[in-house]
């Protein structure tokens, strides 16, 4: 009887033991498989970082972690339209996690890079440490205030979604203040805008504000009939859109003048004191709205030696985007400076198309390393430059063959390229819908002052 019970018990437990042993074996194999994967840490989810992740997604050799201080990807070329109320920020942004929710080898981590620790193959984030086998820095740039503290504190930059919302709120608030202001001198100060920087962003926002002044201002603010806000565009160079052709520069200058924009070339903003912009020639302008698009600089991180940085605080890299003097650390996009390209000995322009191409090329090279294949040096393929000035007004330069377009055709190309460069169909649809409404009604409806609770609390306490 006892023997039968033992046999029966053994018969019942034997299959379970086999299943457990099999499960343990599979778990052991899976853990070893994960440990064999190359851990890629990508800091920054802009054009370069996101494109790198896209090309590594689904590659079983890699375990990819994307780190960004925001939980969404932003499309900066249309940021000025969010700042002026033509688009909602959600039209040009999309959550990172929704990009890769079906990619098992891609993870997202919210955090800000604080320190690089090459000796331990780790980085310190605001949310803790992260280990890596390969580190890719795609952190972009930040506004360059050229050491002028007053401008850093008081000017309005346009680099982030928060910046765009702040500009929109601030400018709308000033418009409301003008409607009730009785002092003529103060009215002029509130009714003037100074834009520092005559690159694409400065030109685009100047043109947008000029069109709003013409089509929307007096319709929405009848109290201001007879008043015209002054729009000043300032640049230290001898021409606007310095990176584009002379043909495009002249066209842009002439169109903006016709739109009523006051252009100051060969002029630097030297300081901003008591609502007064001080220029390099000694002249001054009173304004409470100083928009800063005058330049950018790279970010310096603790842990990387000074020798790693070049002009503009950009990380020096070789033809494979590997950071000089480091091991297993790469940099792509605006944050890197590659001078080995004979066509661009001073480094590539800080453009989206450069960032996208570098992200794709680095992904191919990382795969090549794993598979013992030859690496491909980065070679920039310049597809041309575009800038929009206003409704039916834009410029386009194409290098091969050399072609310069202006007006309606360039405007249509600009719209098409930017619409289809947005990362999702949802973004494209919402943006197209907003553009269509604005085009046919010559109006836009996002002129609402929406402040975070902290700002509301500050206002109550004043």
UniProtKB/TrEMBL annotation:
Keywords from the named record: FAD, Flavoprotein, Membrane, NAD, Oxidoreductase, Transit peptide, Transmembrane, Transmembrane helix
Where does the External alternative NADH-ubiquinone oxidoreductase-like C-terminal domain start and stop, copy by copy? Answer: 383-440
Gene Ontology MF annotations: NADH dehydrogenase (quinone) (non-electrogenic) activity
Q: Where are the transmembrane segments?
A: 408-425
* Domain annotation FAD/NAD(P)-binding: ranges: 39-359
> Has keyword Transmembrane helix?
yes
Q: Does the keyword Oxidoreductase apply?
A: yes
Task: Cite the Gene3D superfamilies for this sequence.
Answer: 3.50.50.100
The catalysed reaction is: a quinone + NADH + H(+) = a quinol + NAD(+)
E.C. numbers:
1.6.5.9
Looking up InterPro entries in the UniProt record yields:
FAD/NAD-bd_sf, FAD/NAD-binding_dom, NDH-2, NDH2-like_C
Q: What class of enzyme is it?
A: oxidoreductase
The UniProt entry's sequence similarity note says: Belongs to the NADH dehydrogenase family.
Identification of the protein by name: NADH:ubiquinone reductase (non-electrogenic)
């Amino acid at each position: 009887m006892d023997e039968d019970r033992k046999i029966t018990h053994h018969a019942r437990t034997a299959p379970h033991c086999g299943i457990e042993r099999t499960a343990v074996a599979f778990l052991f194999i899976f853990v070893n498989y994960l440990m064999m994967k190359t851990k890629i840490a990508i800091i920054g989810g802009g054009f370069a970082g996101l494109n790198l992740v896209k090309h590594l997604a689904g590659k079983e050799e890699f375990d990819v972690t994307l780190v960004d201080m925001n939980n969404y990807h932003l499309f900066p070329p249309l940021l000025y339209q969010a700042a002026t109320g033509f688009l909602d920020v959600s039209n040009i942004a999309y959550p990172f996690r929704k990009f890769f929710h079906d990619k098992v080898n891609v993870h997202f981590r919210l955090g800000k890079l604080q320190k690089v620790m090459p000796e331990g193959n780790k980085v310190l984030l605001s949310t803790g440490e992260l280990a890596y086998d390969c580190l890719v820095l795609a952190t972009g740039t930040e506004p360059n205030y050229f050491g002028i503290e007053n401008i850093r504190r008081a000017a309005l930059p346009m680099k982030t979604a928060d910046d765009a919302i702040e500009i929109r709120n601030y400018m709308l608030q000033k418009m409301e203040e003008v409607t009730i202001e009785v002092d003529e001198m103060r009215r002029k100060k509130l009714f003037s805008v100074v834009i520092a920087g005559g690159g694409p962003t400065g030109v685009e926002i100047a043109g947008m504000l000029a069109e709003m002044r013409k089509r929307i201002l007096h319709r929405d603010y009848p109290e201001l009939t007879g008043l015209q806000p002054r729009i000043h565009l300032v640049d230290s160079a001898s021409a606007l859109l310095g990176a584009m052709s002379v043909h495009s520069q002249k066209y842009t200058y002439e169109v903006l003048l016709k739109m009523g924009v006051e252009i100051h070339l060969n002029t630097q903003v030297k300081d901003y004191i008591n609502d007064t912009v001080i220029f390099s020639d000694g002249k001054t302008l009173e304004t409470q709205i100083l928009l800063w698009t005058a330049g950018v600089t790279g970010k310096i991180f603790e842990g990387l030696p000074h020798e790693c940085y070049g002009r503009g605080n950009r990380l020096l890299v070789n033809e494979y985007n590997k950071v000089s003097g480091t091991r297993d650390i790469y940099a792509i996009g605006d944050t890197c400076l590659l001078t080995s390209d004979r066509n661009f000995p001073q480094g590539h322009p800080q453009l989206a198309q450069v960032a996208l191409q570098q992200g794709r090329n680095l992904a191919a090279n990382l795969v090549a390393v794993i598979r013992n294949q030859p690496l491909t040096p980065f070679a920039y393929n310049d597809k041309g430059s575009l800038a929009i000035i206003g409704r039916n007004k834009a410029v386009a330069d194409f290098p091969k063959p050399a072609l310069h377009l202006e007006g309606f055709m360039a405007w249509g190309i600009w719209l098409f390229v930017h619409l289809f460069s947005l990362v999702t169909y949802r973004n494209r649809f919402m943006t197209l819908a907003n553009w269509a409404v604005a085009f046919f009604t010559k109006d836009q409806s996002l002129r609402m002052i929406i402040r975070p609770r902290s700002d509301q609390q500050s206002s109550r306490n004043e």
